[in-house]
Amino acid sequence: MAKERKSHGKPIRYELKENPTKGDTILETADLVVTSVATAASMSPIPLVGEAAGLVLEILTIIQDVQDNKDQFKQLASHAYQLVARAVSACSPYGSQRDLPSPLRTDLDTLIHALKPVRDYSAKKLQRGWIKRVIFRRHDEQVIRNYYNEVKNGLELFNMSSHIELRQGQAEIIKRLDAQAQASSKANSEISLQSPHSPYPPSSVTNTANAYSSPYDSPFGPGFPFNQVSSPHYPPSPPPQPMFNHGDSYNSGNVVVTNVMNSNNDYSNNVHHHYSQDYPRPRRGPAWKQYR
């Protein structure tokens, strides 16, 4: 089975080998992948991407017909393909060329300017006779190496700028999310303060002076400390009275306790039990005599 190709307008016939070389397989695979990329780029609304993919496809097509310095050309084409694939991926989110950021548009222009000399030089090299190819072999290697370094640097710069734009986009998204969270938190706090059905009850600590206009209106009398802060649900108890007053008597029930201080500063407690008429003094009987 034969495969027909043209070079210098003349058809060239190749016999397909049963065991193709590794280089031929790489070229065929790269040609297929770049063709797919070029098809996807042609459907893209961004003309710069389609132009860059078309240049890489032309370079790969020329390399297949180059007899010498094929390895250097393959490396050059591989980096050029990676650069175009990265460009297609970076431009896919944008609907038109006007929507492209300025740095990305600049990178695409740089990519196209780097690929055009490679395409022109490859086509010029293919048109040489075998004598010129032998003479300029060393020179061609140097030129290809320079193009390779230029495309490689362009790929690194393109990846770096894409990462920077990605990080800037992520930082902008995080900033917007933080602003939305702060605004939502502020709105929730304002609603909770203005709502009459707040989950937090009003303060139960009030001042007694606000409840009574004067000390004499207080149910505890004028002697109660009027300015004491207390809860309205639990009114304070009346002030305690002293149990032992010097020279005074405190009546509680039927028991009278009198405190008398003698001249020796010793205290003696005389407790007198006064029984009222309801509890008469028991009469003396047999039981009383028994215990006397």
Automatic annotation (TrEMBL):
GO terms for biological process: cell surface receptor signaling pathway. Residues 233-242 have a biased composition (Pro residues). Residues 185-212, 224-249, 263-292 are annotated as: Disordered. Residues 282-292 have a biased composition (Basic residues). This is Uncharacterized protein. It comes from Candolleomyces aberdarensis.
